[in-house]
Amino acid sequence: MYRIPTTKDATTDVAWALQRLFYSLQISKTAVSTQELTKSFGWDTRHLFEPQDALEMLRKLLERLEDRMKGVPVENVLSDLFTGKIKTYISCVNVNHESLRTEMFWDLELNVTKNKSLDDSFKEYTEVETLKGELQYFTGEKYGLQDAVKGTIFESFPPVLNISLKRYQYSISRDVMEKLNDYHEFPEEFDATPYLSAAADKSEPWKYLLVGVIVHDGDLNYGSYYTYVRPAKNGQFYKFFDDRVTPATLKEAMNENFGGDNTNPANKNKSAYILTYIRKSRLDHVLSEITKDDLPEHLTDSGIIP
């Protein structure tokens, strides 16, 4: 982030604003304003009081940063950190014919409905579907309609894995969008190996550590976001709620945000929305220490640094 060339203009340069915000968060003993960053997004005061979606915000931020980094030495850093590879396939059962599509993903959206845990959601995502009878797959003129299997498998996961839990859905009976507060557990650590294809590179463990939880408290029309962040690999979580940053326990960051049902009624309105995991073998790289030599001049000359 600190190696992105900037124009030193907070009104248009999201990289300039984010560099200042990140470092202010590192050194400040008091609350840090995000006004420069939101201003770089083109948001005025009116936008700050309108409901915004956290996942959409994350995607817009990464998209703008990626555009800003084109043609510079760190051009591929974001894709190297945040993108994985996924393969969708349809394989015929009785003839040698297969349709494959491989694409990159920046985040994963996993279903909460009918899934009690993150593992359940991954199993559903990679579940194999059988196409036969009226659902037979048309291969083309050579083989015509054929029985087949259809599925999705991961070729790789990114070092920093962002998972969105799909807690919003359209209700046919009510004809409205609604929030799902179903109970859904997620672990502090998980192994992504079972969801990888047989051909995936497994020379390095695919084990992940939870470092961030974005929580939504409320319903679809009213509510607030706050987040729990673990900034060091062996450190504790901190809760960021508006202008208050306080230490948090693992239980506060995880268990209290599984959502609510009859067994957990106290948490029925608050639930985790976005989870951030870092591959454990890459923790030292992703969470590396920042020195003064890493900082751009507009920080060292601005008076931000003591």
Question: What's the rounded overall pLDDT mean?
Answer: 87
Helix coverage percent: 10-25%
Major beta sheet summary: 8 strands, mixed
SSE sequence, one letter per element: HHHHHEEEHEEEEEEEEEEEEHEHH
CATH architecture descriptor of the largest domain: Alpha-Beta Complex
Summarize this, please?
The protein is α+β, with helices and mostly antiparallel strands and 306 residues long. The chain contains nine helices and 16 strands.
Word description of this protein:
This protein is an alpha+beta fold. The protein has two domains: 1-82, no CATH class; 83-299, Cathepsin B, Chain A. 21% of the residues lie in helices and 31% in strands. It contains nine helices and 16 strands. It has helices spanning 14-27, 35-40, 45-48, 54-68, 77-82, 118-125, 250-253, 283-286, 297-300; strands spanning 84-92, 98-105, 108-111, 129-131, 137-138, 145-146, 148-156, 160-166, 168-171, 176-179, 189-191, 207-218, 223-229, 237-241, 244-248, 270-279. The strands form four sheets. Strands 3, 8, 11, 12, 13, 14, 15 and 16 form an eight-stranded mixed beta sheet that branches. A four-stranded antiparallel beta sheet has the order 2-1-7-4. The chain is globular. The relative contact order is 0.13. The model has no long low-confidence stretch (mean pLDDT 87).
How would you summarize the topology of this molecule?
Blueprint: H1 14-27, H2 35-40, H3 45-48, H4 54-68, H5 77-82, E1 84-92, E2 98-105, E3 108-111, H6 118-125, E4 129-131, E5 137-138, E6 145-146, E7 148-156, E8 160-166, E9 168-171, E10 176-179, E11 189-191, E12 207-218, E13 223-229, E14 237-241, E15 244-248, H7 250-253, E16 270-279, H8 283-286, H9 297-300
Parallel strand pairs: 3-8
Antiparallel strand pairs: 1-2, 1-7, 4-7, 5-6, 8-16, 9-10, 11-12, 12-13, 12-16, 13-14, 14-15
